[in-house]
């Protein structure tokens, strides 16, 4: 008898984060979140200990007669996590594959098709969100086996046509393919014994990876063709942009899915951007207007979203090439500089870090940093509404917006803005992200009044530069302070009517 290998899923499965608009923060699962298991309804800690799916043949009742199994009966067995599922499947389906002629390909019998249909009935539940651990166990026992998953992928598109519109059902459909091993793990073995040598040759070590990759591609493409709820679309893009895309035989077939979401703008565009980068950089996909599209997306509004850190990482990736034209780098650097006046204060330091690193990579754009004119919006030839990077006027402008932030009310932001007066650095600096709580604690622990007044001017300047402890107040700070009541994190400036800088 075969005993299923138990694997512990360590924390969150992999995929992102917070939502805005009509999508709640806990709904989207990104690659980082999946590995810690914090996604709502998908945590292994919910509901106490999980009932393990036993597949030991000794508990299956080997002498028990197995009648004709319908898809509904199989679904009930799967939902209950019945013991001995593997042995039950083998006894209920003694002939899983058949041939119409010796030269014809092997096809699944009606019994096996019924079993596969029961999986989609199980996933199509409107009320139950299946946990990744349960789906992984189910896959390892039956449906992720190389000879079964091959036909699960082929049946996916047709089965998805009858799926309910419930968000829970589509979350389950995505959670299943995310919970099974990727083809490069290549641990899965056939569930059924091969009927002939020709069939056995299909499941050799060399062919298994190809078959699993093909099954993954068919299942994923079937998902991308459906009208998915917003939260599922975002989760699918976040997951697919990572390791799974590297295992698709034809990743270019996902381009329509990414482009259609990118054209929607906002969070859809940010999530689609990573997939587009993968297609362009690693799969030689042609997209002549990629820089123009990303440039148009670089607005203060994008940095007010909950995914602003992800967007900044993608911009850093886009500007990492050392072969970019100077006008492209200058346009992005100037656009980011203008955004500094309107973005939340907790993203201003990272944006300035990106600007500084971009100039370090592309020294030909350093003239923006040392040019003093223009010094205001009225005198600036830069047109932030212009989509053509050559016509934006960035080459004739300067980074006076960064200079403005040197009078910022937050000391760390003002200190970071001093790079505009320093010589061009030779090594890229670390881009630090910290939330509003970090800035609040830093402000509350900074010395003021007599503590600072007692120092001489030079001594005080040295202490500020070196982070001297004498500039810290010796008071305890509550780490879990609900600072959002004092420093709101989700302020959205629909119009450019005010700035953070003083």
UniProtKB/TrEMBL annotation:
Segment forming the signal sequence: none
Chain intervals with Basic and acidic residues compositional bias: 1-17
Pfam families, A to Z: CBF (PF03914)
Any one Gene Ontology cellular component term annotated for this protein: Noc4p-Nop14p complex
Any single GO BP term: ribosome biogenesis
Region listing for Disordered, in residue ranges: 1-64
Acidic residues biased stretches: 18-55
Annotated ranges, domain CCAAT-binding factor: 270-416
Family: Belongs to the CBF/MAK21 family.
UniProt cross-references to PANTHER family, sorted A to Z: NUCLEOLAR COMPLEX PROTEIN 4, NUCLEOLAR COMPLEX PROTEIN 4 HOMOLOG
Name of this chain's protein: CCAAT-binding factor domain-containing protein
Protein's organism: Pristionchus mayeri
């Amino acid at each position: 008898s075969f005993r299923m290998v138990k694997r512990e899923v360590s924390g969150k499965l992999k995929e992102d984060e917070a939502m805005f608009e009509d999508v709640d923060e806990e709904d989207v699962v990104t690659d980082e979140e999946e590995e810690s298991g914090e996604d709502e309804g998908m945590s292994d800690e919910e509901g106490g200990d999980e009932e393990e799916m036993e597949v030991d043949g000794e508990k299956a009742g080997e002498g028990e007669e197995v009648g004709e199994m319908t898809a509904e009966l199989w679904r009930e067995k799967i939902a209950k996590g019945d013991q001995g599922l593997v042995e039950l499947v083998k006894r209920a389906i003694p002939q899983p594959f058949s041939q119409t002629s010796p030269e014809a390909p092997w096809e699944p019998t009606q019994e096996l098709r019924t079993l596969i249909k029961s999986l989609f009935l199980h996933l199509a539940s409107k009320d139950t969100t299946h946990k990744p651990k349960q789906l992984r166990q189910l896959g390892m026992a039956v449906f992720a086996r190389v000879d079964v998953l091959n036909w699960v992928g082929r049946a996916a598109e047709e089965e998805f046509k009858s799926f309910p519109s419930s968000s829970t059902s589509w979350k389950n459909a995505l959670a299943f393919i995310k919970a099974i091993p990727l083809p490069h793990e290549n641990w899965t073995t056939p569930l059924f014994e091969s009927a002939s040598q020709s069939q056995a040759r299909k499941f050799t070590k060399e062919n298994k990876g190809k078959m699993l990759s093909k099954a993954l591609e068919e299942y994923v493409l079937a998902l991308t063709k459906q009208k998915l709820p917003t939260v599922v679309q975002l989760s699918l893009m976040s997951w697919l942009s990572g390791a799974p895309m590297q295992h698709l035989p034809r990743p270019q077939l996902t381009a329509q899915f990414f482009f259609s979401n990118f054209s929607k703008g906002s969070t859809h565009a940010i999530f689609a951007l990573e997939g587009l980068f993968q297609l362009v950089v690693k799969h030689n996909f042609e997209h002549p207007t990629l820089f123009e599209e990303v440039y148009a997306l670089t607005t203060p509004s994008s940095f007010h979203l909950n995914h602003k850190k992800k967007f900044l990482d993608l911009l850093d990736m886009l500007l990492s090439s050392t072969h970019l034209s100077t006008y492209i780098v200058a346009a992005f650097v100037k656009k980011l500089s203008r955004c500094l006046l309107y973005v939340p204060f907790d993203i201003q330091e990272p944006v300035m870090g990106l600007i500084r690193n971009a100039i370090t990579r592309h020294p030909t754009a350093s003239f923006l940093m040392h040019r003093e004119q223009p010094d205001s919006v009225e005198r600036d030839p830069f047109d932030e509404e212009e989509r053509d990077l050559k016509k934006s006027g960035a080459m004739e402008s300067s980074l006076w917006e960064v200079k403005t932030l040197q009078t910022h009310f937050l000391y760390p932001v003002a200190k970071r803005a001093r790079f505009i007066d320093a010589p061009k650095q030779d090594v890229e600096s670390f881009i630090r992200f910290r939330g509003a709580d970090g800035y609040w604690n830093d402000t509350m622990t900074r010395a003021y009044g007599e503590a600072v007044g007692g120092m001489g001017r030079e001594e005080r300047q040295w202490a500020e530069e070196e982070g001297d402890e004498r500039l810290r107040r010796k008071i305890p700070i509550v780490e879990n302070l609900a600072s959002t009541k004092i420093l709101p994190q989700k302020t959205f400036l629909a119009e450019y009517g005010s700035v953070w800088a003083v």
